[in-house]
């Protein structure tokens, strides 16, 4: 039986991130393209269709870049959170070495998730959410179980379907935190300088929190 209290694990994940500010620092890199994408998509002249398409393409490109970087950084954070659950220490250098050993597989995973979920989320919202739900455990399957990206896709489908009710409830909670954080980051990005910085910091704090929460949920399904 699944033993996972969402709100208890939410508080534990938040405390874990708060006690390890280095996780915020590494998350600054993917936060920058997301904030830049929101600014590109919302500002500028729309008088000419060419510039509108240009901004759309640039915004989508920045969004995909942010997604790929987010998944790469999430892989690093996931290793740290997984390691902490067994050794009670955070060793980012060890996590970096593990990422380096399997960088190509993790990069392919990041590209697959970013293009599938990113494309459908931007242009077709509900199919994007559906694919995000099915691909929920692809990264943990690659990082923690050591699968290749394509077998991880199948394993994620099976795990989601096997624990459909629990996974759906968890996904809704995860989506709530993600939307609130991204919305706050987007709103603050319109305030000159200080607001943009605050928006970047919010998104940078959101990534390690959500990744840690996902890691703990995955471990509760497969390890405990």
The total count of helices amounts to 10
Shape: globular
Number of strands: 0
- Tally the structural domains: 1
Computed over alpha carbons, the radius of gyration is: 17 Å
Helix/strand-derived category reads mainly alpha
Percentage of β-strand residues? under 5%
Q: What distance lies between the first and last C-alpha atoms, to the nearest angstrom?
A: 9 Å
Helix content, binned percent: over 70%
**Order of helical and strand elements:** HHHHHHHHHH
Q: Please, what is the average pLDDT?
A: 82
**Multimeric organization:** single chain
Largest sheet: none
| Spans where pLDDT lies below 50 across 5 or more residues | 44-54
Organism: Thermatribacter velox
Protein name: DUF4013 domain-containing protein
Keywords: Membrane, Transmembrane, Transmembrane helix
Transmembrane segments: 21-42, 62-82, 103-123, 167-187, 193-219
What are the main properties of this structure?
globular; membrane; transmembrane; 224 residues; 10 helices
Give an overview of the whole structure:
Keywords: Membrane, Transmembrane, Transmembrane helix. The chain crosses the membrane at residues 21-42, 62-82, 103-123, 167-187, 193-219. This is DUF4013 domain-containing protein. With 224 residues, this protein is mainly α. The protein has one domain (6-222). 84% of the residues lie in helices and 0% in strands. The chain has helices at residues 6-19, 22-42, 49-87, 92-101, 103-123, 125-134, 138-143, 149-162, 164-188, 194-222. Helix 1 packs across helix 10 (194-222). The radius of gyration is 17 Å and the shape is globular. Residues 44-54 have low confidence and may be disordered.
């Amino acid at each position: 039986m699944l033993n996972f209290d969402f709100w208890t694990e939410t508080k534990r994940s938040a405390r874990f991130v708060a006690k390890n500010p280095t996780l915020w620092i590494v998350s600054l890199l993917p936060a920058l393209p997301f904030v830049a994408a929101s600014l590109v998509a919302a500002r500028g002249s729309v008088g000419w269709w060419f510039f509108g398409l240009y901004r759309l393409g640039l915004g989508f490109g920045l969004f995909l870049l942010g997604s790929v970087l987010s998944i790469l950084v999430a892989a690093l954070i996931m290793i740290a959170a997984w390691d902490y659950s067994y050794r009670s220490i955070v060793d980012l250098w060890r996590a970096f070495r593990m990422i380096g050993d399997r960088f190509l597989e993790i990069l392919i995973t990041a590209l697959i998730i970013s293009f599938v979920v990113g494309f459908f989320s931007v242009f077709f919202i509900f199919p994007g959410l559906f694919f995000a739900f099915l691909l929920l455990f692809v990264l943990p399957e690659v990082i923690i179980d050591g699968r290749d990206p394509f077998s991880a896709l199948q394993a994620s489908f099976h795990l989601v379907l096997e624990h459909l009710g629990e996974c759906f409830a968890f996904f809704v909670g995860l989506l709530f935190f993600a939307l609130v954080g991204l919305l706050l980051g987007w709103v603050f990005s319109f305030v000159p300088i200080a607001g943009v910085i605050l928006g970047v910091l919010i998104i940078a704090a959101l990534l390690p929190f959500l990744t840690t929460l996902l890691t703990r949920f995955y471990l509760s399904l497969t390890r405990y």
